Amino acid sequence: MKKSIEQLKVKLQQKNLLLVGGNVYDTFLENNQDSKKQFCNLDNKIVNIAKEIGYKDVIKFSPSKGKIFLLGEQDILDDENDFEDFETNSIKQILEEFINDLKNEIQDKDISRKIYIIDFSDTLLNQESIKDLVEQAAILLSTILEDDVKNQYDIINLNKLSKVIFISRDTGNIANDFSSKNIEFASVNINKPNKNERAEIFNRFYRSFNVIDREKLNLDSKERIEAVALTEGFAVKEIMQLARIQTEDDNYTFKELFSLAQFNKRDSEWEKMDLNQLNNADNILNEVVKGQEFAIANVKQTLINASLGLNGIMHSEKLIKPKGILFFSGPTGTGKTELAKQIAKLVFGDENKLIRFDMSEYNHEESDQRLIGAPPGYIGYDSGGELTNAVKENPFSVLLFDEVEKAHGRILDKFLQILEDGRLTSSKNELIDFSETFIIFTSNIGVVGNNPKGNQDEIRKNFIRAVENHFVNVLKRPELLNRIGKKNIIPFNYITNRVIFKEIIESKLTKLVSALNKKHNVKISYTQDELENLVDLIMQENAIEEMGGRGIINSLSEKVINSLSIFIFEMKLKNQLGMENITHVKMKVIANKEKVIFEL
């Protein structure tokens, strides 16, 4: 923030038309710690700069207060709480008054030059009714910001001209008429407090926070380092808002208070993980996802790192990065989505904690608005973004971005921000925290040109190389690959082993038997020979490596489910299904007729 104000001072001397954006409505720390006034706003900063560079008048136009003198005829900075004359003005009124002041200055060369602040730029472009006024103001500005230049002294004396400062959170809303090809124009972005400035906030105001470790926030301690890291991306006001929170008991640490404010929970769900279950994660996951031992071993290691907060620690000490990042690459139907579900179930006890986004639906230029929300004034703004809403409601979740290679390039910019900063700003200016999420990307990149019957180690290397090539040479986004991490690219095996094929079929049949027993009181039985015949029947329809797990399920539905449904339906029509007694049904596979039958 300090560097931003220093840049503002330089640019205000150098240029005569400024656009100030970013964190413009935040509070700034005063330099003098002993002063009664610890904070000030951007108006105060501009007035101080104006005095230093020799201006005696600073006039501000805003819809909330109309025209006010911050410095000069009616200095109101020391009387900011006097609202007796408060009146809300329309943007049109404010712009008309500003134009009148410009006309008076042009007509009277003896009027002392001023600094004008226009603080309603957020809505300047969104109203068709003021378009003519905007154009008129642009013409008048060009008149007062230009002068005849005959020698080097005239160039220097241009700093005696009036200056205009536009203030806007979103600098994209400023009309091009004011800035386009204007050599007197410059923009300044006010940043949020950096690491040292956040440390200074805790050093000065540690007593304000209702936490048991507040005394340590004033020291060079791990508690202050943690508090500074957690509040990265926060404005000064947002940090101080944490001091307002009163808990039911006075036994909260700052980290717990932060978690309560951000996620409505005192403790992280990651800290509640069953360590014994995590230690047994490979066995648990291999029971559900067949034939992917290599991928599951890598997933287990990443989950252990996530539980300890060590993922990505070598690249950054930030505490607000996602808990884990994985990139699943491999053939369709090999268990990528299913493994993501099981990760959610393992970590959070509920596979519904998986939030899935089909990235083939986000392949248009405006698709990023679906994720974070439409801009103010556009259809869908009130609804917010699908991604930001989902994480806001479920901060402890697994995010699955399926077929990520199909997403539009603008979506990748959002991913970059999430992976690097652990946060994403919604269209409503809400800072959404992704630090408790686990992010998984899936892709089929590398399938084309890979030999399913080749050496498994070489196949995996081919998948990894294909993903790297896609980011570096196709997308030209190596920085995104670096944020994901090459070690986090997890290739999935082709399902070429008949044993694995059989295990998948048997696993699905077990689920079917259990479901029928509960729902219809029907118990299905089959011999190992019948199971082998079923495997042969399904395998002969398609090449085994092309089917994948999804192909197996489709074939089972066609051969088994459809036949079984007809059988049960006919039994119901004949009243041959007992509601109290178990009905025993045998499954038989007739290989020569390529069908499955059921009989009592």
From TrEMBL:
GO terms for molecular function: ATP binding; ATP hydrolysis activity. GO terms for biological process: cellular response to heat. One of its GO terms (cellular component) is cytoplasm. Keywords: ATP-binding, Nucleotide-binding. The keyword Cell division does not apply. SMART domains: AAA. This is AAA+ ATPase domain-containing protein. It comes from Spiroplasma cantharicola.
